Amino acid sequence: MTVSDNISKIKEKIACVCLKSKRDKDSITIVAVSKGRATDRIRESAQAGIVDIGENRVQEAMLKYNSSQLINHGSQLIRWHMIGHLQTNKAKDAVKIFDLIQSVDSLRLAMEIDKQAFRIGKIQDVLIEVKTSCEESKTGLKADDLIEVIKKIATLNNINIQGLMTMAPLSGDPEETRPNFKALRELKERINESRITNRQLQILSMGMSDDFQVAIEEGSNMVRLGRAIFEI
Ligand SMILES: *Cc1c(COP(=O)(O)O)cnc(C)c1O
Predict the structure, then answer these.
(1) How far is the CA of 225 from the centre of ligand 1 (A)?
(2) pLDDT score, position 76
């Protein structure tokens, strides 16, 4: 098995769910989560056509971003996604390399990203991370606070809110995560109906290696896959 074989299998599975759910398979973005993996693996993923790369630590991502291995293989084509918790003091580095920061979970962090993006003349695309499970350990904004916080973030000039992201609780049974995914889709619909953002939210980033099919059934258009792609 190679990374490329894994990606082919995943694409078949996605095509199958999309057929059942009457969705366009090309509307699903696969983010290859390469945290803790070597840059060689990222290159293999990019060569197999997956150029969206997810990392959860700024420092690790910067090293990979600057690695000659990737630069020599077209790293400029890679779209970098920040998917882990982002500390405010790392926002300055994060805006330099990430195309999409998926883990904005507070107004304070959004304001810092806005400030740092302004300094380098960038409009930073972000997703708002929402906590859809009641486990204390899960990161993200509480659904109850979401509308109020998004209203405020929407006023920041150097931030563009593209959508929502959630981490479902880890569970042996992917069906158990369905309510979390459904909740995120409904929140997105509510936000779009209330027109509190300048543009309609487009992205729903939900689903990982064990539950991406269920997530797609519930409306996900961005799945974040680590093990499914890189365990060979
Ligand atoms: C690690 C990670 C993933 C990928 O998890 P797998 O189970 O390996 O697919 C997705 N999203 C986030 C936020 C992660 O930290």
Answers:
(1) 6
(2) 65
